[in-house]
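Recap from last week: sequence in, structure out.
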Amino acid sequence: MSHVFQMSDEIFAKVAELAAERGKTPEALLNLWVQQSLARDLGPGPYETDDWFRHLGESEEMIRLSKQIAEEEMAQERAQHDA
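Predicted structure tokens:
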């Protein structure tokens, strides 16, 4: 199913420019942004909330390492998605 919506020429030009910089179509970039926005709206996950780890009794070092691992995994997922 597809839907059409309107946006100003100025906004479309900026979206098209940003999409081209990323090797995407404007439609693909908008879809990606919406997906990312919806994922954020679901609320923080355990890897995004330091307090959750503290609540579980984890050390600050373990929290730091967990963040690093999560960031690396997200970067890999983004790279795969962008490919």
